[in-house]
Amino acid sequence: MTRLTLAIDATGGDFGPCVTVPAALQALASYSHLNLLLVGTPDDITPLLAKADSSLLGRLQVIPAESVIASDARPSQAIRSSHGSSMRVALELVKEGRAQACISAGNTGALMGLAKLLIKPLNGIERPALMTVLPHQQRGKTVVLDLGANVDSDSDMLVQFAVMGAVIAEEVLAIPNPRVALLNIGQEETKGLESVRAAASTLKASAQINYIGYLEGNDLLTGKTDVLVCDGFVGNVTLKTMEGVVRMFLSLLKSSGEGKKQPWWLKLLGRWIQKRLAQRFGHINPDQYNGACLLGLRGIVIKSHGAANQRAFAVAIEQAEQAVRRQVLERIATRLDAVLARSDKA
Fold first, then answer.
1. Each residue's pLDDT tens digit, 241-278
2. How confident is residue 288, by pLDDT bands cut at 50, 70 and 90?
3. What's the mean pLDDT in 58-79?
4. Are 108 and 149 in contact, with CB atoms under 8 Å apart?
5. Quick one: 4 exposed, middle or buried, by C-beta within 10 A (0-12, 13-18, 19+)?
6. Which distant-in-sequence residues (6+ apart) come within 8 Å of 159 by Cβ?
7. Of 39, 62, 64, 65, nearest to 49 (Cα)?
8. In angstroms, rounded to a whole number, what is the distance separating the alpha carbons of residues 47 and 250?
9. Radius of gyration for the chain, computed over Cα atoms and rounded to the nearest angstrom
10. Taking residues 192-196, what's their average pLDDT?
11. What is the pLDDT of residue 270?
12. Which residue in 42, 60, 126, 344 is deepest, having the highest Cβ count within 10 Å?
């Protein structure tokens, strides 16, 4: 298999190298064709590599960076003072062609701004959107965007998000003629913000998009649509609320009955029920789908949760590997050119 090189912002996120470095070693052990560039302060990274297998270290290189962008920094200020930061250096590696993708758990606003500045959006895309693929209760998957890259999105941006989401659903998830819906506060056509209603009008008139109307938040995991579109504020709140509920549910499965005296048969029954429920719902564990792709750029950029643990960050690295290997960028660019060209003629 062709060698792939990924750049990792090793000092970004809430936990920095103590999570990103072990996750990087885990990814190297899983993918023999993978090379990784760890960007950050060598003094923080090198000690965590001391016990690593030499065969893995041969496919890993530490790229020095002078600073890290704080998670709570204002994006505009962070971008102005970003020279020499681990996030910027990682993105520059993609821009220069030394890496095929970048993964960061750092400041979302700064990552968005720097990626747009350095890597540039695709033709026809005003602003990139954070996209992830969520599992739903029918054992399929739903493309959801935007998840926080754009707090305010006008109707044109929502339409662009819909086009990109449909491309991902069709080209990557192999869903023919994917259903596209807008997230709204009701299913009636008169409800919602003006930007959402205007986007609905445009999508309804487009022959290239299989638009099915509005869906409410309780339909997020039902599988009623293949692509769910919203602005970044709504998407971020929706996703994090869902993840909090799922984590609470899964923790209750693990802790149910702990510390209580129970008959042996009741304990056995409880463990069997917990196992069955974990098998049924374990696929919606947020750690298994960590990593949102900053969609609409001329390069692959993956945003990990800032509080991701080693397992979750390794999943984000895996998403970057898959995006490069499946040539997601090339497929999106080709389809966007065709779809937006047809939309213009229409």
1. 877 777 776 676 565 555 556 666 556 656 665 565 55
2. low
3. 94
4. yes
5. middle
6. 199, 202, 203, 206
7. 62
8. 34
9. 21
10. 93
11. 60
12. 60
Mean of pLDDT over the chain: 87
Q: Is 106 exposed, middle or buried (0-12, 13-18, 19+ CB in 10 A)?
A: buried
- In terms of C-beta density within 10 A (0-12 exposed, 13-18 middle, 19 or more buried), how is residue 160 classed? buried
What would the mean pLDDT of 219-228 be, rounded to a whole number? 91
Alpha helices, H only, the chain: 17-30, 42-45, 54-57, 75-80, 86-95, 108-118, 155-171, 194-205, 232-255, 264-281, 310-325, 328-345
DSSP code string of 154-171: -HHHHHHHHHHHHHHHHH
Residues contacting 10, CB < 8 A, separation 6+: 16, 17, 20, 21, 24, 38, 39, 40, 44, 45, 86
Residue 17's nearest CA partner among 105, 111, 81 is 105
Is residue 280 over pLDDT 70? no
Please give the structure tokens belonging to residue 226: 């293949």
What average pLDDT does the segment 179-191 reach?
92
- Under a CB-based contact definition with an 8 Å cutoff, are residues 297 and 115 in contact? yes
Task: Bin 284: left if φ > 0, else alpha if -120 < ψ < 50, else beta.
Answer: alpha
Contact in structure between 290 and 240 (CB atoms under 8 Å): no
Task: Write down the residue that tokens 């750092």 correspond to.
Answer: 106
| Number of residues that this document lists for the chain | 346
| Rounded (5°) CA angle 155-160-162 | 95
pLDDT band of 24, cuts 50, 70, 90: very high
Q: How far apart are CA 132 and CA 145, in angstroms?
A: 7
Predicted TM-score (pTM) above 0.90: no
Q: How many CB atoms are closer than 10 A to CB 284?
A: 19
- Largest Cα separation within the chain, whole Å, is 72
Token pair listed for 224: 């009623």
pLDDT-wise least confident of 4-13, 295-304, 330-339: 330-339
